[in-house]
UniProtKB/TrEMBL annotation:
Pathway: Purine metabolism; IMP biosynthesis via de novo pathway; N(2)-formyl-N(1)-(5-phospho-D-ribosyl)glycinamide from N(1)-(5-phospho-D-ribosyl)glycinamide (10-formyl THF route): step 1/1. HAMAP family: PurN (MF_01930). The lineage of its organism: Bacteria, Pseudomonadati, Pseudomonadota, Alphaproteobacteria, Hyphomicrobiales. N(1)-(5-phospho-beta-D-ribosyl)glycinamide binds at residues 13-15. Belongs to the GART family. It comes from the Bacteria. It comes from Nitrobacter winogradskyi (strain ATCC 25391 / DSM 10237 / CIP 104748 / NCIMB 11846 / Nb-255). This is Phosphoribosylglycinamide formyltransferase. The gene is purN.
Length: 217
């Protein structure tokens, strides 16, 4: 039985699209049952509809600071659809600790940096200002703290001297679209286990698992 997944978005939804595409494979252990946006104008909604996935808008703005009331409506939509896992894909709204606890080990997020470095806004600008030579993206389980929680999968790219936040973001986004479906496949397929703050996995590193940057040859 495929695990039932909801993807939560606020914007363009390119990671959502990557997940929806991957989930079309017969052997994928999860199905995308619904895409929910907290913003009515999110471009990702049209992309999800075009892919034949149910979409739902639960606008967060009318709830103002009342996060719990927004989450109650969200939870009931998730319950109605017997959702087992949540994937956040550029979902720009913080959750209460209580909501996060209820989804412990069942809610994933993707962040465009090698966590725990460069949490929060402008991760690519942060990476460039720090002068790191390797950056990337991280899929992790969601905990109450923003852009933190047990790491499921990471992918890396070399940072170039002439990178801008935009060029780096574009290369990292390609990595995001590769690792998010792989991470969901792993988690939904039962290939991960939480050991406190650490996510242990049955998968191996890829054969080309070293990346040295810059390269001198
Ligand atoms: C992605 O780059 C994702 O990693 C980032 O928002 C973008 C959403 O793009 N998420 C965060 O920064 C979370 N802190 P998308 O809507 O095209 O998937």
């Amino acid at each position: 039985m495929k695990r039932r997944v909801a993807i939560l978005i606020s914007g363009r939804g390119s990671n959502m699209t990557a997940l929806v595409e991957a989930a079309k494979a017969e052997d994928f252990p999860a199905e995308i049952a619904v895409v929910i946006s907290n913003k009515p104008g999110a471009a990702g909604l049209a992309r999800a509809q075009a892919a034949g996935v149910e979409t739902l808008v639960i606008e967060s703005k009318p709830f103002g600071k009342d996060r719990a009331a927004f989450e109650a409506e969200l939870q009931s939509a998730l319950d109605d659809r017997r959702i087992e896992f949540i994937c956040l894909g550029g979902f720009m709204r913080l959750f209460t600790a209580e909501f996060v606890r209820g989804w412990h080990g069942r809610m994933l997020n993707i962040h465009p940096s090698l966590l725990p470095s460069f949490r929060g806004l402008d991760p690519h600008g942060q990476a460039l200002r720090a002068g790191v030579k390797i950056s990337g993206a991280t899929v992790h389980f969601v905990v109450a703290e923003t852009d933190a929680g047990p790491i499921v999968m990471q992918g890396a790219v070399a940072v170039r001297d002439d990178d801008t936040a935009e060029t780096l973001a574009a290369r990292v986004l390609d990595i995001e679209h590769r690792i998010y479906p792989d991470a969901l496949r792993l988690v939904a397929g039962g290939g991960t286990r939480l050991d406190g703050d650490i996510c242990k996995t049955s998968a191996n590193a890829s054969p080309d698992d070293s990346l040295i940057s810059p390269s001198v040859i």
